[in-house]
Amino acid sequence: MKLFSYDSKFSQIMLKLCYGCYLNLLWIICSLPVFTAGAATAALYDVTLRLAREEEPPLTGQFLKAFRENFRQATILWLILLALGILLGADGYILYHLYKGTTGILSVICTLGLALIIVAAIAYVIVLIYVFPLVASVKNSNWAMLKNALLIGIHYLFCTILVFAIHFAMFFAVVAIYTPLIIFGEGLCALLSSYLLGKVIRACSYDPAEESGADQ
């Protein structure tokens, strides 16, 4: 039947779902020590960006190769972002409870503080969305990775919103609708996101050597 032929749309969609499921399993296993989550995410996007370009890399081999190659930089960036995330969360928690228990000028100060925390949290999420796909795609310094992730995310805001919506939809589906959907998890999210992020990264391609020279 044509529906089940390898080249049919149905077969290609089912194949991509299988890829997402398998890559999600690899990502979970490699993220289990927690501090390796950054390297696992960079490796995941290395593979999914290739799939989005219609390449057919050996999934396991390419994932492990990218995991090794990006381990140092991705781990450093992940630990920085993890620390910042904990700091933002703690500051937001403290300010929120202070806001609830204060009045007058202190309440105004707490409100302004919460507003700043919200803005910082939005910037944090934008960086988190883009930094590991960038690590998987280009070579640059850690600071340049963080800076470019934020600038690209702001410039391509519609793409950023769509990628966030993909991850939020998966989170909502797993938590509120059908928990076993976690089998697709980040693997499928990264694969779907890569069709958007790949175009953005190619549009923003630059020469890291030139930028490093300019910073010096």
Large-scale geometry: globular
Question: Could you list the spans in which at least 5 consecutive residues all have pLDDT below 50?
Answer: 207-216
- Helix count from the secondary structure assignment: 9
Strand residue content: under 5%
Average pLDDT figure:
90
Distance separating the two termini: 62 Å
Reading the helices and strands in chain order gives HHHHHHHHH
Largest sheet: none
Helix content: over 70%
The total strand number stands at 0
- Measured on Cα atoms, how large is the radius of gyration? 20 Å
Global structural class = mainly alpha
Spell out the blueprint of helices and strands.
Elements: H1 9-31, H2 37-52, H3 59-69, H4 71-100, H5 104-137, H6 142-155, H7 157-177, H8 185-203, H9 208-215
Helix pairs in contact: 1-2, 1-8, 2-3, 2-4, 2-5, 2-8, 4-5, 5-6, 5-8, 7-8
Keywords:
216 residues; mainly alpha; 9 helices; 81% helix; disordered C terminus
Short note summarizing the structure:
The chain is mainly alpha-helical.
Task: Describe it.
The chain is globular. Helix content is 81%, strand content 0%. With 216 residues, it is an all-alpha fold. The chain has helices spanning 9-31, 37-52, 59-69, 71-100, 104-137, 142-155, 157-177, 185-203, 208-215. Helix 1 (9-31) runs antiparallel to helix 2 (37-52) and helix 2 crosses helix 3. It starts with 8 loop residues before the first helix and ends with a helix. The chain is built from nine helices and no strands.
